[in-house]
Design a protein that fits this description.
Blueprint (H helix, E strand, L loop, with lengths): L8 H8 L3 H8 L12 H11 L5 E7 L5 H6 L3 E8 L2 H11 L5 E5 L11 E6 L11 H11 E12 L7 H19 L13 H10 L2 E7 L8 E8 L1
Parallel strand pairs: 1-2, 1-4, 2-3, 4-5
Antiparallel strand pairs: 5-7, 6-7
The chain binds S-adenosylmethionine.
Length: about 230
């Protein structure tokens, strides 16, 4: 549906009707051929932003999926740990980065699993839409809790697109469809757009003890996107 090797429409529907975990298990072998994987040019921008502040000791990639983010930041770090609750996605991540001893994978829910601690850097790419707004403060407190003083939580988000844009309508229609789907079918597939946009994210970070700096992503095709670099204070 997206590109050669990507999932068909029927496969996507089947995945969307599964739980979040099982949906990603099903999607995993084809995930890298979908637009849901954070694109390399976006990861490249984040790496260029981080480079002057590195090298970093231990980094954590929250909701690491197939390991694209962990792979991108790995050259800047001594060690990287990736965590995800989909075994299928972690299997792809292991395949991507092989037996690199500086990378570790942890299977579990970011709300329930011991995330370890004393990280210099925590990143999260393309996954904040899976965290319901009411649970975001809890996740941010967890992130703050595992960062050492002065450590960074870095992610990419965007401003809310205006109602005049196709992107806004696409996101609103998707969200409405997911609300109906989740009201009718259990277990739920939790994924909503526009839930951790810049305007919402900044006060939530500050409330969690993370001091955000906002830098334009700098890609012409994504003018509303920003790198948020939040320092543990
Ligand atoms: C859209 S993918 C993004 C993967 C990767 N970070 C990237 O940018 O390509 C979202 C990932 O978040 C994981 N995920 C969602 N909610 C999670 C949770 N509560 N705990 C752990 N992993 C979670 C899913 O399994 C999936 O691999």
């Amino acid at each position: 549906m997206f590109e050669p090797g990507g999932p068909s429409f029927v496969e996507l529907v089947r995945q969307g009707l599964s739980s979040t975990v099982h949906g990603y298990d099903l999607l995993a072998p084809k995930f890298d051929h979908t637009p849901f994987r954070t694109p390399d040019d976006v990861l490249g921008r984040v790496v260029e932003h981080l480079r002057p502040f590195g090298p970093f000791g231990h980094a954590l990639d929250l909701c690491c999926g197939t390991g694209a983010g962990a792979g991108a930041i790995r050259p800047l770090c001594e060690r990287v740990t990736g965590i995800d609750f989909s075994e299928g996605m972690l299997a792809q991540a292991r395949e991507r980065l092989g037996d690199d001893p500086s990378v570790q994978w942890r299977h579990g829910d970011v709300f329930e699993t011991d995330l370890g601690g004393d990280y210099d850097l925590v990143v999260c790419f393309g996954a904040l839409g899976h965290i319901p707004p009411l649970e975001q403060p809890q996740l941010l407190r967890r992130v703050r809790g595992v960062l050492r003083e002065g450590g960074r939580f870095v992610f990419v988000t965007h401003t809310v697109p205006p109602w005049t844009s196709a992107a806004r309508w696409a996101a609103e229609v998707f969200n409405a469809t997911m609300r109906v789907r989740n009201a009718l079918i259990k277990p739920e597939f939790i994924m909503y757009y526009l839930d951790f946009c810049l305007g919402d994210a900044l006060p939530r970070l500050e409330a969690a003890g993370l001091e955000p700096t906002v830098v334009p992503l700098g890609l012409a095709r994504a003018p509303r996107f920003y790198i948020v670099d939040a320092k543990a204070v």
